[in-house]
Amino acid sequence: MTHETSMKLFPLLILLFGLAAARAAETRPNILWIIAEDLGPEALSSFGAPEAKTPVLDQFARDGMRYTRAYTTGPVCSVSRSAIITGMYATTIGAHQHRTENKVPLPAGVRPLPARLREAGYFTALVETFPARVGLRGANHLDWNFTTEGAPFEGRDWSELKAHQPFYAQVNFGETHRPYHAPAGADLAKVALPPYYPDHPVARQDWAKYLDSARELDRKVGRVLAQLTADGLAENTIVVFMADHGQSMVRGKQFLYEEGLHIPLIIRWPRSVPAPEGFQPGRDDPRLIEAIDLTASTLAW
């Protein structure tokens, strides 16, 4: 090949590489994390919980894959969230003091997930505002035990997502965090208390309120998923539903037991994106999953 020929081909190669890069950007999936606060699997009917009524997440589990042995690395929000968003143990990065007043930057080389995704060309949003017809607001809730340079997320409004694809968005819901505010609905007589609680009216009422809060959470998740579909985003968006740690009950939150660490995890894969090996909608995956690994998985997606 002569020098003249190679010089003529060079612009063509640049164009082809540019088209390939643009095509890759078009096919990269959007990613939505829906995070509940203080929620264990025992409050969701999709995980076989008696008296729980969460039909939206039941259907979501049928459309996606349910991970039955998913755990956080800490039983309280700020510690767990700090670990999840960095993919590292809180003790490793000095973020293990719950809501410390003396926050410091992350160690050199450690960055939260939104920062890494922005570098990969993703728009990042912590969604607080939804269209009026959706009738809800997301919780403006990071709860990280470290400081960051600048705003961790670029957007706050759901309406920004469609015009800024690919995107990584979080929606946080605090319904299952105490104090509970959901309308009453659970039948006290049918509440199945854990064996370590006394069968007492106070205990039954408290557990019923927990189930009611999960039902209200389920309703709001349904609104988000419906809006995702209405905006034409569902076909190209990986949706992760999870909790920041286990149940908001005695022996749950702030206790390093099963109840404080075990969380519901459901992932729905979009039809337009090739699914990972082994992903089968409607199936359960019993593998041990650590929530901190979701950061690496999200980057891989």
- Strand-pairing-aware structural class: alpha/beta
Quaternary class:
single chain
Helix content: 25-40%
Which descriptor suits the 3D outline?
globular
Could you tell me the radius of gyration in angstroms?
A: 21 Å
Order of helices and strands: HEHEHHHEEEHEHEEH
What's the β-strand tally? Answer: 8
End-to-end separation in angstroms reads: 40 Å
Number of helices in the DSSP assignment:
8
Low-confidence spans: pLDDT under 50, at least 5 residues? Answer: 10-25
The biggest beta sheet reads: 8 strands, mixed
Q: How big a fraction of the residues is strand?
A: 15-25%
For the largest beta sheet, what order do the strands appear in spatially? 4-3-5-1-6-7-2-8
Overall pLDDT level = 91
Strand and helix layout:
Elements: H1 3-27, E1 30-36, H2 55-63, E2 65-71, H3 77-86, H4 90-93, H5 113-119, E3 123-129, E4 155-157, E5 167-173, H6 201-230, E6 237-243, H7 258-261, E7 262-268, E8 284-290, H8 293-300
Provide key terms for this protein.
301 residues, alpha/beta, 8 strands, globular
Describe this protein's structure.
With 301 residues, the chain is of the alpha/beta class. The chain contains 8 helices and 8 strands. The protein has helices at 3-27, 55-63, 77-86, 90-93, 113-119, 201-230, 258-261, 293-300, and strands spanning 30-36, 65-71, 123-129, 155-157, 167-173, 237-243, 262-268, 284-290. The radius of gyration is 21 Å and the shape is globular. The two termini are 40 Å apart. Residues 10-25 have low confidence and may be disordered.
